[in-house]
Amino acid sequence: MRALIIVTVLLTLPTVPAAAQSGACRISVTGLTFAPYRSLNASPTTNIGRLEVFCLPGEGSAAVPVVTLSAGRSGNYVDRTMTAGSSELHYNLYAEPTRRLVLGDGTAGTVAFPAPRTRTIGRASWPIFGVIPPGQRVPAGSYSDTLLIEVAF
């Protein structure tokens, strides 16, 4: 029997009141929607999202924005989970394609988004590498998680 499992990771940004901003940033996030997960597949399910930030620096703001990512609903950076009801599907997000650097806030074995290798003045862009490990036996359903991205500029 085959079951298709549709999974989505939503990356969201909290809004900051204009009075609290020292400069101005425009932020664009391409979320991760994984291909249907098949528990019998021996290969991980992967996808790439993207975060783009364009900041006009204000007085005392950082030259390069510092960007961090929350742990999601699981509260665990190194073992993130998407849920469908009470079922959990484990996944994670990485700063690079070799899957060694877990994206987070720089604590608990994670890294904040690294300084971009190339950028134009005020603009930075980062890929987000998403991976669902193979071999998880979970019921069919639509699995999701919501993470917050914090940009300090």
UniProtKB/TrEMBL annotation:
Alphabetically ordered keywords of this record: Capsid protein, Signal, Virion
Residue ranges annotated for the Spore coat protein U/FanG domain, each copy included: 19-149
Signal peptide: 1-20
Pfam families: SCPU (PF05229)
InterPro entries listed in its UniProt record: Spore_coat_U/FanG (IPR007893)
Residue runs in coiled coils: none
UniProt keyword Signal present: yes
Source species, domain of life: Bacteria
Official protein name in the record: Spore coat protein U domain-containing protein
Annotated source species: Brevundimonas goettingensis
